[in-house]
Design brief:
By secondary structure, the protein is of the alpha/beta class. The strands form 2 sheets. It has an 8-stranded mixed β-sheet with strand order 4-3-2-1-5-8-9-10. α2 runs parallel beside α4 (68-76). The protein is globular. Helices cover 31% and strands 11% of the residues.
Length: 323
């Protein structure tokens, strides 16, 4: 696939650039993750000033580290936070609201914004709950300011969560805004690195065509963003691609389905209702998950065993938990 090769080239170029230039923040290396970046908290504070954020009551935010301050500000603003359980392994979403019977206002918000804390304090949300998502915030590896095309970490969780929530009537795919926070270098720009070198590489492969977009065309289920917020600017996407609605079962591989219990449950329910089998997507080799090196990570959450090289079970488990 030319498209998937291009997308991987984008991811790798961004991840490498962020590591080499020390834009990357803990957890590192940022390869195969939604990369944490210098200025992530400033981008979150900027997002919180948007009228779309201020008017939203229920905000869905991805569970990755760079959006931790976004989750904090959602709760601090008295809004309801909906956050996916990591890798959708054990369930679907956790719902949290600070200053309630379940989470009294004496609970520090910091305790609620990690994946572990969200799972511990949040209310587990199944496929069949009634709620309405007002705003979606996603993390990105790279994003296009013209079309809103977004590249994640390659596992498709943001798309699957959007698909299931819209399928179940919890999200109006036509009207709900999708916002990302990221570093300025993650926003496509022809004339700055790492994009300049990447575009030259793409052009040489494409026989010198100058108008090639590094994002190619999105697949049907990809969710473009409406607004991009960096530490320095807010970009409203001018020519956004259409958003998907529902789950595209014909694009979902058996390998991906086998990983995610909530999707298996939804598929079975729909097949029972229809009285026939839904299609499956082509087989795929699932992308690798992130590796954590014990490299000067700030010691949040008692990582006391880093002296042994940080490759103990706790280190690996925590990587998977967070992403």
């Amino acid at each position: 696939h030319c498209g998937s090769r291009l997308v991987y080239s984008i991811r790798k170029a961004i991840w490498d650039h962020m590591e080499v230039n020390d834009i990357a923040q803990f957890p590192r290396p940022v390869h195969h993750r939604i990369p944490n970046f210098q200025g992530a908290d400033e981008a979150a504070e900027r997002l919180a000033t948007l009228p779309e954020f201020q008017s939203a009551q229920l905000v869905k935010v991805n569970p990755d580290t760079p959006q931790r301050q976004v989750r904090h500000l959602v709760l601090q603003s008295g809004k309801t936070l909906l956050t996916p359980q990591p890798r959708l392994r054990t369930g679907f979403f956790s719902m949290l609201r600070h200053g309630t019977d379940e989470i009294p206002s004496t609970t520090p918000i910091e305790k609620l914004t990690t994946s572990k804390g969200a799972a511990k304090f949040g209310t587990p949300i199944t496929l069949y709950e009634q709620y309405t998502i007002d705003l979606v915030v996603v993390g990105s590896s790279a994003v296009c300011p013209k079309t809103g095309a977004r590249v994640g970490k390659g596992e498709g969780f943001a798309e699957l969560e959007w698909g299931v929530a819209s399928q179940q009537g919890n999200l109006d795919a036509d009207n709900v805004l999708c916002i990302t926070t990221c570093h300025d270098s993650q926003v496509f720009a022809n004339d700055s690195e790492p994009w300049k070198a990447l575009m030259e590489e793409i052009r040489s492969e494409e026989d010198g065509e100058s108008e090639v977009s590094p994002f190619g065309t999105l697949t049907l289920h990809d969710v473009p963003v409406d607004i991009i917020v960096t530490p320095t600017r807010t970009i409203r996407v001018s020519d956004r691609l259409p958003k998907p609605s529902g789950v595209y079962w014909n694009l979902l591989s058996k390998q991906k389905l086998a990983q995610i219990r909530v999707l298996q449950e939804l598929k079975k329910q729909l097949e029972d209702e229809l009285g026939e089998d839904l299609p499956s997507g082509p087989d795929e080799v699932l992308p690798p998950t992130a590796v954590r090196k014990s490299r000067g990570g700030r010691g949040r959450g008692g990582r006391g065993r880093r002296g042994r090289g940080g490759r103990g079970r706790s280190g690996r488990g925590r990587t998977r938990e967070r992403e």
